[in-house]
Amino acid sequence: MKNKVLLLTTILFFLIVNTTYYWQGKLGILAFPFFLVLVVVYLVLVIALIRQIYVALDEKFANKQRLLTVCLMTIILGLIVYRPLGLIDFDKLEGENLLVANSEGAANCMTTLKLKDDFTFREKTVCFGVEEIKGTYRLQNDTIYFDNVDLGPDAENFYQYAIVKPTTFNKDGQQYDLVRYKSLKDTTAHKLWITKNELVFP
Q1: Rounded Cα gap, residues 116 and 134, in angstroms
Q2: Is the pLDDT of residue 156 over 80?
Q3: For residues 44 and 9, what is the distance between their CA atoms, to the nearest angstrom?
Q4: 97-104 and 110-116: which strand pairing?
Q5: Do 58 and 115 have their domain in common?
Q6: Which of 58, 82, 106 is the last residue of a domain?
Q7: Residues 67 and 137 in one domain
Q8: How many C-beta atoms surround the C-beta of residue 75 within 10 A?
Q9: For residues 17 and 90, what is the distance between their CA atoms, to the nearest angstrom?
């Protein structure tokens, strides 16, 4: 019975880790403490696995159920180490990234914005937690407009539109920024450095 509970716990933990893409942005500032809980659970499972291996050796591998538990736990925990962000890249499954832009703020806070080929966008900010904002976008002339914005639990508002501009002090003419504005009256625009741009404006 204990072996079944241990194995089910390991499988559940594996599923939680592999679906991080969908739930971490909903936790907001709670994402970091929840990550610490996952680390503790992983260490507990590793200790439990070592104990199971020790008992299995003592039993000379006579208990087939324990042997199955050891094998499956070893594979699952090994896969988590090999691919800590999950086996499946859900970002690629949701479509091709036509534009990717990011910026690094204070305390190594990182913001990444991705515009997909199905006219949806996803912005993720990692800074003492994870904040995720999703929505749709449309292209008009040389401007990107953000619509149907789904704010995360900690966000108050989002940008109305953005423009692609050459980076300040751009020497080779190949570097661009995505300059975003909260409104037409916004004079303190926010810049993201563009790392990929395959947008085609009408």
Answers
A1: 11
A2: no
A3: 11
A4: antiparallel
A5: no
A6: 82
A7: no
A8: 12
A9: 13
User: Sign (positive/negative) of CA torsion 73, 78, 80, 81?
Assistant: positive
CB 199 within 8 A of CB 98: yes
pLDDT, one tens digit per residue, over 69-78 is 999 999 999 9
How many residues does this entry show for the chain?
A: 202
Please tell me the distance from the alpha carbon of residue 202 to that of residue 183, in angstroms, as a whole number: 22
| pLDDT recorded at residue 172 | 65
**End-to-end Cα separation, the chain, in angstroms:** 63
**Has residue 202 been placed in a domain?**
no
Calculate mean pLDDT across residues 17-40: 85
Of all helices (H) and strands (E), which one includes residue 84? none
Residue range(s) defining the domain that contains residue 182: 91-197
> How many Cβ atoms from other residues are within 10 Å of residue 25's Cβ?
23
Read off the pTM. 0.78
CA 87 to chain centre: 13
- What is the spatial distance between Cα 129 and Cα 139, in angstroms, rounded to a whole number? 31
And the tokens for 32?
A: 């970091």
Helices (H) and strands (E) in the chain, counts: 5, 8
Please name the residue that has the structure tokens 């050459």: 166
Beta bridge partners of 143: 140, 163
Contact 142/126 with Cβ under 8 angstroms?
A: no
